[in-house]
From TrEMBL, chain A:
Top-level division of the source organism's lineage: Eukaryota
Pfam families, A to Z: F-box (PF00646), FBA_3 (PF08268)
InterPro entries, A to Z: F-box-assoc_dom_typ3, F-box-assoc_interact_dom, F-box-like_dom_sf, F-box_dom, SCF_F-box_component
Domain F-box stretches: 4-51
Protein name: F-box domain-containing protein
From TrEMBL, chain B:
Keyword set includes Magnesium: no
Function: Involved in ubiquitination and subsequent proteasomal degradation of target proteins. Together with CUL1, RBX1 and a F-box protein, it forms a SCF E3 ubiquitin ligase complex. The functional specificity of this complex depends on the type of F-box protein. In the SCF complex, it serves as an adapter that links the F-box protein to CUL1.
One Pfam family per UniProt: Skp1_POZ
Keywords linked to the UniProt accession: Ubl conjugation pathway
Protein name: SKP1-like protein
Subunit relationships: Part of a SCF (SKP1-cullin-F-box) protein ligase complex.
Amino acid sequence: MSSSLLSNYVPEAILEQILLHLPSTTLIRFSSVSKSWFSLISSLSFTLQRSFSNPNPTLLLIQPTPSSHSTTFTTTPPPYSTHHPYSLRFISSLYGVVCFIEQSVGHDHAITLFNPSIRTYLRIQTPAVKHTALGFGFDTGNSDFKVIRIFNGVELYSLNQGGWRGIHCPYRKLEELQFSNTQCFLHGNVHWVVSPSYATKSYVLIFNMVQEKFKRMGFPPNLVFDALCTLQLKVTVIQGYLSVFDCCGIWMMREYGVAESWTKMFTLNLERGCISKVFGFRSSAKVLMLLHKKGETSLRSFDTKTQEIKDLRIKGEIIAACEDTGSLVLLDRFACSVSKSQAKRRR
Amino acid sequence: MAEKASPSSNSISLKTVDGKIFKVSPAIANQMLTIQPLIKDSDSSTIISLPDVAAFHLTKIIEYLEGKPAAAPSAVDAFEAQFVKDLSPEELKGLLIAVGYLKVNGLVDLMANTVAKLIENKSVEYVRKFFGVVNDFTPAEEAKCRQEHAWAFDGVDED
């Protein structure tokens, strides 16, 4: 019989193409087929390929008390519950991984990386200090998630290495700068808007996750954010553009790295409300904002195409919003990965 | 090399692993990306041997390349559905490997998608058997894995 002459082996490249067609639940089940299937399915490159083949992901909201689902979003609880006075503060999300910090009055505690699609998380032990700023990003050179924390020093956490280490900073006394209370990751860099205390001009401070170096990126001379206002600025990414929300509008850096390309793109009529958080997405023309008004908080979306602000009428506290990419990153942080048993806690 | 009057009139001879020889037009053969470089240097007396491809597979591949409608996506969908309809899981797998080896335009994705549909609701054991994969987890590791993601193991097909 001729069939015995034939190869019975499906090459990995073809196998990967088959797996790209499968939903997350099936992939999680198949991650226990063998160790090589496990590494393929939990690899970041596989996750990235899957997210590129899904141009319209649904929205995922992380809420302590999940509200009912709708066609446009799903809700999920945080990885673990916290009790007063502890709360979870969103830092940012990337490739389906959401980064939080546990806070209590005056102190920050552990930093948590959470993949809501597969409900897997990693809790990074962090000394209890008050941070000046935090950032979450990805090192494409080493395929490594990294967290940066700025306090009276600078430290970087590498997921691959599983620990914190000190980083040299060429600027004196970063902790004396006023930092925007949000940050975002774009083109390999974490971005904050900072201003030296009182009256000097603000600029964008960036930290490159590959080179592990700080750099400054100025605003054009005609764009001056008040130093006192810096804390209120929100930095995010809208459709691939670095964007800054001030109290009444959105500025976008039309050409990355070119200071002169900062342009006020939209004026927001917030009806005397004030934005406390923004959630921008990789490819979406929409951006979400938590708006405080008359003692109430509501989640609003702003569509950069139609310039409409819409109240999404979602009840309850919202910790984070991200795109549901069906990411399988961090799957290897589970016990069945055998090799890596780093600091982790299960639900 | 001798000059050729009209390359398009030359048919290409392909020999399958079970010894059958197929004559196909260059237009068809050129859609098998793996043998493309060999076609350039071949004349009518050249026979290209194809490991990993049996006569059954090559017949199906030629059927696909000759029969695929040029336009209307709906017609392509109907043709492709018909093309894979009566294939057994074993035939699907063999054809997948042959198509993957030859890198046949359009057919790699169809076969990958068809196999994905076949295995989507199958058990881990079925998949190991189907792909001939050896389970290299220890029983303890595997049990742990299943326990962590128990919900992903619900509702799989019987076979």
